[in-house]
Design goal:
The structure is a single chain. By secondary structure, this protein is α/β, with parallel strands linked by helices. The protein has 24 helices and 23 strands. The strands form eight sheets. The protein has a six-stranded parallel β-sheet with strand order 3-8-7-4-6-5, sandwiched between helices. It has a five-stranded mixed β-sheet with strand order 10-9-13-11-12, covered by helices on one side. It has a two-stranded antiparallel ribbon with strand order 1-2. Helix 8 packs antiparallel against helix 9, helix 10 crosses helix 11 and helix 16 crosses helix 21.
Length: about 700
Amino acid sequence: MPSKYKIYPHIMEIVRVEDSDLKVIEANRCRVFRAMSLPLNAQVIWDDIYAKQRQRVMIICNTVSQAQGIYRDLSSLNHDWELNITLLHARFLPEHRANKENYLTNIFAENWQNNNDNTCQVLISTQVIEAGINITCEVLHTQLCPMNSLLQRAGRCARFSGESGEVFVYRNVEINQKNQVLANTDLFDWEDADVEKLESEKIEITKPKESFLPYKKEICELTWQVLQAHTESENVNHHVGFRIEEEWINLVHAEEDSLFLKRRNNSQMEFESRFADAIFRGDESAASDLIRKVDNRNIFTWSESGLIDCDDGQEIDIQKLLPFSVPISTLCKAWREFQESLAFGDDWIFKRIETPKNKSQTYSQPVLSSITSRDFLIGCYRILVNNRYIYYDEEIGLQIGVNIPGNRFNSPLKKEKIIASQYRYRMDNYVGHLVLMWKCWRDNFSTKILKNGEVIDINYRSVRDELLVAGGKFIKAKILPQAEVNEAEALFEILVFLAIFTHDLGKLQVKWQQVMREWQKIAKNFGGKNPRQYLLAHTDYNPEDEVQKAALKAFEKKNQRPNHAVESAFLAREILHKSLIPLLQEHFTEDTEQIKYFGCVVIMAAGRHHSAWARGFESNDVAKLKQIELSPKSQQAIADSWRCMTKFLPEFLPLSEGNLSRNVYQLKELDLNEFFTIDEVEFLQLYSLVVRALRLCDQRSVQF
């Protein structure tokens, strides 16, 4: 079925469908809606099934725990196994969820009547079936939710041509006393909780009788009003077609969308500040909120309280473990209940999983730190859960909470990737690496990669074709409106050139070259090349070779590879002073602030080409590192790179040659977070385009 709605964060765009197409879309279906005054519970579902001899039934709840509660209640009524009940939600292991989805796709398929054995099939689910699963049913019982989500859910009832179905909408879900603890696990409005009173005075927060979590009450109330008016009208037994759905969407969401846009316009400064915090200062919560309201955290669990010393003596690699995504509201509720029951036995329920400071996440084991407050918990994005409070099985999925009897479930390993790594590093000398990156900017190229163990051909467009026009238009529209189109594009190309040219200056350090050359001696045992007297940018390394991987790990324990990105940004300033600044002054602007910010675009791209949130050099870094010492051959390598690359730049904007004047630089503080403020957001956005070009060229150059 073609999608009628495009759903974006906060905003729904209506795609207009012509009347002539509606007959095809409607396809002689009949789907009726009714707002129900009684609560949704297992007995209501059971009674409806037997009163109307249902054979394909779906129930959709707003939270996983409510779906689990309904599943338990309905299963307890199913003494003689008259019903075949399946529970589906997002907290199943991938293979278990895939098995369930495959089963449901067959059982709830189009023309299911042709293969029916008179068994009533019941699916209890959450929002996971709003899109992506092509199934249908006779009757849908759903908890109240915003109108856009409700109509997505309804699309799983009488989905195909000639079918008839009923959609019953309930304001709330009612769970039997026996399963209420389980069902209420996700029902905690943490944003409305009084943190001080909660943690210092241990005041019990009374859960409201009605909960529409994770949705806002206001939008659900508007949806209910529309449904209730329809239920009380003479059209209640008539088919609700596309035009009525369109009307309902406008009634409920038009006002919400206009209010959102008004709030966004009124808080533009705050938005831009959050944008800078997210993209350039590493604030994960800001990044999540800007994309969409993210309420979930990744949780892991294992038997040991530390990351190493497991039974088999092997380290636990967090990158290889499969996480579960759980709402922060659920974790906050578990935290509150744990604080109130510390005598329960354990001294912790959650720990933060983090990467050691100043170390690459790729090469270092994460560490654990205690979570000491609810606010700290909310700010964590990878969390270890004491498996005393975790339960998992294939039937009901993951449960978490102080009152959940744990079964010592441990996070499983992710499945091994079928596709072998396409990145197999080969020894590159410094000049050759920059030249290859510049070639990736200018030219299309074909190469071979490994896929499923086989060598296949792949074609790449030039990065220039992908980004040059956009970069030029952005500079002209937002920064230099007086520039001609070709001038703006040429300036963008020069900024990319300078980012490529300066991004690896830190690799010219004596220490970097020493470590790389020592590894290359070992790499020769695996077929690596002789580095001779070249200055190296990369060494030979195949990450798919386990023996070579182990050799590198042993080597790095004794030979710490120095950082190079922020060092490159530090050194880039001298080159930009000699090349970029005179060009800007002569051809584009005399505004010293604009000139400064163009330079900062390149410096940030160089400093953050590996980590978008690199901070720079702080006072403790200066005290520790003291100076940058470059190889005596550095200036010649820089000059050779300049000569090979600049001949492809636009001739009408000549650059003065840039190089470094000495081999030893005393370190000074460099704060990459303070280059821009929200008043210069257009330069932050320009940086995003330049660093995107830099990273694409860097990634592709190793595949040449």
